[in-house]
Structures are given as structure tokens and as C-alpha cells.
Design brief:
With 201 residues, the protein is α+β, with helices and mostly antiparallel strands. The chain has helices at residues 14-32, 46-50, 85-88, 153-156, 160-164, 178-185, 191-198; strands at 51-56, 66-71, 76-80, 93-97, 99-100, 103-104, 119-121, 126-132, 135-140, 145-150, 172-175, 189-190. The model has no long low-confidence stretch (mean pLDDT 83).
């Protein structure tokens, strides 16, 4: 007699099919929507999500701490670390001057995909001077590479360094060659090591 299938073959009822779909849906939901208890109390910032954060502590002078945030495409954003001496001065940073030595970095214009006119600098090259409490502090490149952009907003809005030095208050964007980055990377601190060094939470 024909039983609708070979002997021993399980019969797929409508109830079983619905149950399988429910289980699959729950598994998919668990993959797409994380459990709230597994989420961080504070969501990561754009910097934390898109950059690996490095620091040059006491770069050439005590207290001259700078950050180097490296994007996956190799670009490095350079700026003042929270513990930089200028940010600890009374009143914070009050002026920024990109005219260092024989050239004004803010007048540099880089064009096209090949970044024509980009100047190549060493890690110790000066990027700008920041003024705080009557004192001048030299900000350096920290990495060897091509200077693609300086943040000329700081000329009119130096207070960005006091309020958001790691975001809108960045100093410059530099593109190092992979071989040069490999050489400098080992001399920089990781974010965790920097926080431990400076006693930051």
C-alpha cells in the first residue's frame, strides 16, 4: 500500500514546517539584533570605529603628546593628545599659526587623485605653532609622509583644539608610505598604553 513515501521517511507536517521557520527566524534575529546586555554602555565614536589610535608621548619635548589616528586606507590624522601641555595651560589654546619657517602650511593646495603638490615631510617637521597662555608650542608631523591637508578652520576657530581636538580640532592629514609607517609604528603607543602612561580612564 502506498503510504505517501518510503518506509521510515519522516512526514513533514505543516506544524513542523512552521516550527522550522520560527526557529530560523529567531536564529536570524539573534544574528542581526544583538542582545542589549552585550552592547557597550556608550556606543563607539566615529574615531573609535574607523581609526586605530596611536600616540607619540613627549614627542621631542616633555609634555608634547600628540595622537596619530590611522585609517584602514593608510591615511593618518595628526593632532594634540588630551594630555598635551598646551591644552593644560590656563585658558587653553588661543591661536594657531601654520606659518612655520619658510612656508605657510595653510596655503598649501593638493589636487587630484595623485595628490599633486603634496609636500613630503619627516616625522620631526613642524606643522604649526599653537599659542596658549602667552607660550608657543610646536606641533610636529609625528610620521614621515605626504602632507595632504591642514585644518585651516583652526585659524579662525582655535578653540576647537580645546573642545574637540580629536575630531573637528585635528591638525593635519598625512599619507605615509607603508614602509615608513612600519618603521614609525613601533615607536608609538597604543591607546591603552597611552591611557596607562598618563593615568587616564
Amino acid at each position: 500500500m502506498d503510504g505517501g513515501g518510503e518506509e521510515g521517511e519522516p512526514l513533514q507536517t505543516d506544524a513542523l514546517v512552521k516550527m522550522d521557520k520560527i526557529v530560523e527566524g529567531e536564529e536570524l534575529r539573534s544574528l542581526l539584533i544583538p542582545d542589549a546586555k552585550d552592547l557597550p554602555s556608550i556606543p563607539p565614536s566615529a574615531v573609535e570605529s574607523n581609526f586605530v589610535r596611536y600616540y607619540a608621548a613627549d614627542f621631542l619635548k616633555p609634555g608634547h603628546d600628540q595622537y596619530v589616528y590611522r585609517h584602514a586606507n593608510g591615511l593618518c590624522v595628526v593632532g594634540l593628545a588630551p594630555s598635551h601641555a598646551a591644552l593644560r595651560e590656563e585658558g587653553g589654546v588661543t591661536a594657531v599659526n601654520f606659518n612655520v619657517g619658510k612656508s605657510d602650511r595653510s596655503e598649501m593646495k593638493v589636487t587630484g587623485k595623485r595628490k599633486r603638490n603634496a609636500q613630503h615631510f619627516d616625522a620631526k617637521t613642524s606643522l604649526c605653532k599653537v599659542c596658549a597662555n602667552g607660550k608657543e608650542f610646536i606641533v610636529r608631523c609625528c610620521v614621515k609622509g605626504s602632507l595632504l591637508e591642514v585644518n585651516d578652520r583652526l585659524l579662525k576657530q582655535p578653540d576647537l583644539l580645546n573642545s574637540s581636538a580629536d575630531r573637528e580640532g585635528y591638525i593635519a592629514i598625512i599619507m605615509p608610505k607603508p614602509i615608513d609607517w612600519a618603521k614609525i609604528k613601533d615607536s608609538l603607543l597604543s591607546h591603552e598604553d597611552y591611557k596607562k602612561l598618563r593615568g587616564l580612564s
